[in-house]
Amino acid sequence: MISEYLKAQQLKVGRYLAGKLMEEANLDSKQRRPHRNRSKGVEAFVAKNLLARNFEPTAINQVWCGDVTSLMVGKRWYHLAVVIDLFARRIVGWAFSLINDANLVSKALRMAVGVRGKHAGLMFHSDQGCQYTSQRFQSELLEHGITQSMSRRGQCWDNAPTERFFGTLKSEWVPPKGYKEVEEAKQDMTSFFMRYNRIRLHSYNNYLSPIAMEQQAA
Questions:
Q1: Is the distance from CB of 159 to CB of 64 less than 8 angstroms?
Q2: DSSP state of 142
Q3: Which residues fall within 8 angstroms of residue 81, CB to CB, at 6 or more apart?
Q4: What is residue 16's predicted lDDT score, i.e. its pLDDT?
Q5: Fewer Cβ neighbours under 10 Å: the N or C end of the chain?
Q6: Which of the pair, 21 or 136, is modelled with greater confidence?
Q7: Which positions ≥6 away from 114 have C-beta within 8 Å?
Q8: What are the angstrom distances between the C-alpha of 194 and each of 12, 189, 211?
Q9: CATH number of 63-217
Q10: Alpha helix locations (H) across the chain?
Q11: Does the pLDDT value for residue 35 go beyond 50?
Q12: Are 111 and 94 in contact (CB under 8 A)?
């Protein structure tokens, strides 16, 4: 290519001369296409980090947080979205899909609202993933009267409770080779969430399970 030739000859030219040389050589410039998982600029909305790593709410249904992880099913990745009530680290919503998009996280949020109801002043915290910055998810939060908070870019510990939960899920429960079928994965995830909420002792809860912690606080 001309650019490689010029580089090899250690010749420096401006973009206008480079454009003229390319035109004479009948060459076109090709730009990279945007990554398909990135939101279009007109759609993306980044909320302020209102939570500011205050991971210790004083009551149930003050702060929910969410995130998405991937699980190997057969030879494909399937995506799991969860919603956690930070008060006792209880899993209150989840959804599972081949497509990691706004519909996935919206479905998890709708499950949480169905289980817990609507609450004035409730905050939802997540990272800046395109699922959460989308207009689709903004509308879902608005419909349920939920205030949005987001981690700062590149600061995974701004959403540390969900990071820790996924670490527990994958180290304690998910088979090393993944799952063979989608239904198997869905059933196993449901079993884990039920066990986690009812049975698993959590150091944050003074070694009570999330449900026991909530019952004690009631």
A1: no
A2: H
A3: 66, 67, 68, 94, 95, 96, 97, 104, 105, 107, 108, 131
A4: 55
A5: C
A6: 136
A7: 93
A8: 65, 9, 10
A9: 3.30.420.10
A10: 2-8, 15-24, 102-116, 130-133, 135-143, 160-172, 182-198, 210-217
A11: no
A12: yes
Q: Which amino acid is at 128?
A: Q
Task: Give me 75's structure tokens.
Answer: 């030879």
What is the residue extent of each domain of the chain? 1-29, 63-217
Tokens of 161: 């409770």
To which residue do tokens 């989608």 refer? 182
> The tokens of 44 are what?
């993306």
Give the mean pLDDT of 154-182. Answer: 95
Spatial contact of 173 and 187, defined as CB atoms under 8 Å apart: no
pLDDT surpasses 90 at 45: no
pTM: 0.80
> What is residue 31's predicted lDDT score, i.e. its pLDDT?
47
User: Which amino acid, residue 49?
Assistant: N
Residue identified by tokens 């899920």 is: 169
Q: Is the pLDDT of residue 38 over 90?
A: no
By residue count, the chain amounts to: 218
User: What confidence tens digit (pLDDT) does each residue in 10-32 have?
Assistant: 555 555 565 665 666 665 555 44
* Res. 194 pLDDT band, cuts 50 70 90: very high
Q: Which residues contact 116 (CB under 8 A, 6 or more apart)?
A: 60, 61, 85, 92
> Residue 90 pairs with which residues in a beta bridge?
85
Residue type, 186: K
